From TrEMBL:
Single GO MF descriptor: GTPase activator activity
Organism expressing this protein natively: Uria aalge (Common mure)
A GO CC term attached to the entry: autophagosome
Rab-GAP TBC domain location: 84-213
Protein name: TBC25 protein
Region of interest (Disordered), residue spans: 1-20, 31-57
Bias (Polar residues): 1-17
Length: 213
């Protein structure tokens, strides 16, 4: 049988092809023919690792000043953006990232702010539920419930039977309160996917509502 050529044929002479075609083929042959025993160039090195590790409690303290005041919010956000947050610290850091606190509060002032906002949320929830027309309340509640009962049910925080489930009830309440308080927006499919991890991490309905807003 005819042998298989091991390389490109020699460039044809000018009697068969125009000179420019011969020169092009010769250049292609030279480019593709590695010298024997010479390996291709090694791949480029991987990019250097990020200088940011997940934010730890010790890292967070470097962004705080006297009294626990947050002095470098932009640097804190950059650290979280590049490195993330240790899971056990998310409950604290997410409240900074989602602007729950006014700027410049001390640690004690942040606690007082959360207590005040929890009271405001409880009053708002009761007021909106009492003021809404029964048909509106039923319509919004049904739309929210349809998503709540199927959101993150594989997660331990939301797993288990639906009846009497306190975390499903909290998710239902905070989304219904938001929808009633924002009638032009109301409830949209997918809001439960945003609110559920907030509630699971913060484990507090009022604080999850603040972060969701």
């Amino acid at each position: 049988p005819p042998s298989v050529p091991q390389s490109l044929p020699s460039a044809p002479n000018s009697t068969r092809f125009p000179p420019q075609v011969g020169r092009t083929l010769a250049r292609a042959q030279a480019a593709l023919a590695w010298p024997e025993g010479s390996p291709p160039s090694p791949p480029p090195p991987p990019p250097p690792p990020s200088p940011f590790a997940p934010l730890s409690d010790a890292d967070l303290r470097t962004y705080l000043g006297p009294g626990g005041r947050l002095l470098r919010p932009h640097d804190l956000r950059l650290h979280v953006y590049h490195g993330g947050v240790e899971p056990g610290l998310r409950k604290v850091v997410w409240r900074y990232l989602l602007n729950v606190f006014p700027a410049g509060l001390s640690g004690q002032e942040r606690l007082a702010h959360l207590r005040r906002k929890a009271g405001e949320y409880a009053a708002l929830k009761a007021l909106l539920a009492a003021r809404a027309a029964p048909a509106e309340l039923a319509l919004v509640g049904a739309a929210v419930r349809k998503d709540v009962v199927r959101t993150d049910r594989g997660h331990p925080y939301f797993g288990g039977p639906e009846d009497g489930h306190p975390h499903l009830a909290a998710l239902q309440a905070l989304l219904t309160t938001f929808a009633l308080g924002h009638p032009r927006l109301s409830y949209c499919q997918g809001m439960s996917d945003v609110a559920a991890p907030l509630l699971a991490v913060l484990d507090d309905e009022a604080q999850a509502f603040l972060c969701f807003c």
